[in-house]
Amino acid sequence: MPVASCPVHGLDADDLSCSIREHVAHSLGKRGQEAGCRDVATAMALTLRDRLVDRMLETRDRYRESRAKRMYYLSIEYLLGRCLGNNIYNMNLQGEMAGLLQSWGFSLEEIREHERDPALGNGGLGRLAACFLDSLATLDMPGCGYGIHYEYGLFKQSIENDRQVERPDYWMAEGMPLQLERRDQAVIVPLYGRVEDHQGPDGGYLPLWVDWQDLVGVPYDIPIVGYGDRTVNYLRLFAAKSTDNFNMQIFDQGDYIKAIHQKVYSELISKVLYPSESISFGKELRLVQEFFLVFCSIRDITRRFLKQNRNIEELPEFTAIQLNDTHPALAVAELMRLLVDERRVPWDRAWNIVTRTLAFTNHTLMPEALEMWSVELMEKVLPRHLQIIYEVNRRFLDTVRASGVTDEAKIRRMSLIDENGGKQVRMAHLAVVGSHSVNGVSKLHSELVKKVLFPDYAALWPGKFNNKTNGITPRRWLYKANPGLSGLISEAIGEDWITDLDQLQKLAPLAEDPSFRERFAGVKRAAKAKLADYFAKTTGIVVSPDAVFDMQAKRIHEYKRQLLNAMHVIHDYLRVTEDGYVPPAPRVYVFAGKAAPGYFEAKEIIHLICRLSKVINADKRASDWIKVVFAADYRVSLAEKLIPAADVSEQISTAGTEASGTGNMKFSLNGALTVGTLDGANIEIREAVGAENFYLFGLTTPEVERLLGEGSYDPWEYYRKHPEIRRVLDALSAGRFSPDEPAVFHWMFEKLLSRNERYLHLADFMTYLDAHERIGMEYANPDVWMRKAALNVARMGGFSSDRTIREYARDIWGIKPFPPKGAAPRA
């Protein structure tokens, strides 16, 4: 490609071409003819960044001129996915870019494949945060994200000898051209030290946090472009760097290595993303990591606010801060510390500012996921914050008693400090007490938050609790990920659905049209054929695009019940090979997901799935009817390949365990039919798409609570009563799928038959089989199946993250859109 000199910031094909060639020459230092695929990808990203920065500055000026109230989203995780393709689609440049690349001998798809996924999240929590940022920008709302600039992501997963192997995911290895380093806005972060009691000039108590160690938080901004290139917000990620200051006492003692070691330790804070279920990660480092996020964010937010020459007591009028789960809960204590210690705001007025500014989203019902930190550790790391938490707790419990509560057991339950055994700070309680709003993320989950997690708080503050059902961005999860289906939709009803997903309801009458169903089926088969090619290249497994593509793609966890799915695979295999059963249609079972490195049970479930794949795919009696694929290293870019090709979406968690789920929404939006329990957002999806278009099975939440609460669950009863269950478990126990290690899966047999098996696999197994029988029969009738699939797409409008963001903005944040001059607000 030749180099030419030209202006930088146009958006037509000629300007884009010139800019890309300029960056190849002047940013990468190469001749045009030397530029390979990766070079072109980098130059494209830099070209887009030039335009995004222009628009980001214009957006910032628009907010400032309007004195807009702003929302700041604090999250320990963000799963952005590849940014290059997403930006191209949101800027509506896919046609221009594809044409340019073709003229240079490249394709847009191969260019995008050279970008690494920014591995800044474990799963749904981080992906939801990314969807929210997309919707905020698309809706022209003043909101941005704060997080940590992890150097290493969760981990890269490979399968070796049928087991998960973890390798470091240095996602920055190729750089990230899109991001902007903001070293001039770095933050000094204090840690450790002690508190000295002093008296202020006014005679009041003046605590001084002294002898603390410091490190630096350096911000990096990633522009977040909304659809149509109208608004560009940003995600600000902080990287931990050591200061230029050594501990001179250590240095003067001649221990140079120890002095250097302290500097290196500081940078560990943003080195690696914490795995969700890991217990091996250092507790102290994790606490420091969470405080690092909170301190950098609060300092940056208040700096921006005060730059406008406003009184700090006006903070809630112009600022909303959303805590995405308990990880940023220390924001309650840090904002209080800043107000009381640094700004000298009286306690009661400071507390009023804190509670009016902060809001809290709970994402889990799992007791082990509700963070608690030992008082001893917090006193070591954050001595002043522990003092503040104790004072918040004292005043709060005085309020509880003043409200008429005399039950000391209830008061102990509501305390921010857990006194059972070693004292611990309950971070979820701190977030609830310090926020003006507490929301769950689906209707069922929000009810369980009030009923199970925080019943005493809900009784005290019933108006504080609300629901905000999660959503997904249709830009990435339909418009970009599934161009075949999005093209068919746009041809049928126009393009307004991209920013107004309710427009999809116009497809409902077309589901009755045989010609539309035929075209819909053609789009689905093309996506399946593309995925089949990917499997053949990456796994060597050959699958037919005419089979049912049955998928479960999500983090591996016992409550998500990949084991239940695997049991069904065993059941199908034994029916075919031992009973001579002929299924109505071939089935390809696709599993994808990572198990936390320290989570034995989850890793062994992956081991079982890989053994099933090896045995079943090699058995000529079954391989024409059943194939099993484990798609390794699940990430956003892999999800974009899997989801458009799915026929069946497995959403099979035990009722009452999944907060919401967003994978269930992505699959359904792309025309997969759900087999699922009444759990999380499954309930709302079933209501929306119609009970007849959803394959329901399993116990309800009250039934689960009753079985577990009464201790009446007896899995041996199911084992004795149902030969189907007995045959599957006996095959596991006997080493049918692990002849070289006959006892390797025997623990599963024992656990599934234990009265303490709290996810009730056996209780739900027979109804799960019934649901799959219905799936097989209905898939064999293309008219029936495609009508159901098309109606799923048509009725998913309510699950856009645009809708979710509008509800947060209206009910919690008090922010509104600020579109460019002359542009109408989004519908």
TrEMBL record:
Coiled coil: none annotated. It comes from the Bacteria. Its EC number is 2.4.1.1. The keyword Kinase does not apply. GO terms for biological process: glycogen catabolic process. Its cofactor is pyridoxal 5'-phosphate. It is an enzyme of class 2 (transferase). Keywords: Carbohydrate metabolism, Glycogen metabolism, Glycosyltransferase, Phosphoprotein, Pyridoxal phosphate, Transferase. Gene3D superfamilies: Glycogen Phosphorylase B. It catalyses: [(1->4)-alpha-D-glucosyl](n) + phosphate = [(1->4)-alpha-D-glucosyl](n-1) + alpha-D-glucose 1-phosphate. GO terms for molecular function: glycogen phosphorylase activity; pyridoxal phosphate binding. GO terms for cellular component: cytoplasm. Pfam families: Phosphorylase. PROSITE patterns: PHOSPHORYLASE (PS00102). The modification N6-(pyridoxal phosphate)lysine is found at residue 666. Belongs to the glycogen phosphorylase family. Allosteric enzyme that catalyzes the rate-limiting step in glycogen catabolism, the phosphorolytic cleavage of glycogen to produce glucose-1-phosphate, and plays a central role in maintaining cellular and organismal glucose homeostasis. This is Alpha-1,4 glucan phosphorylase. It comes from Solidesulfovibrio magneticus (strain ATCC 700980 / DSM 13731 / RS-1) (Desulfovibrio magneticus).
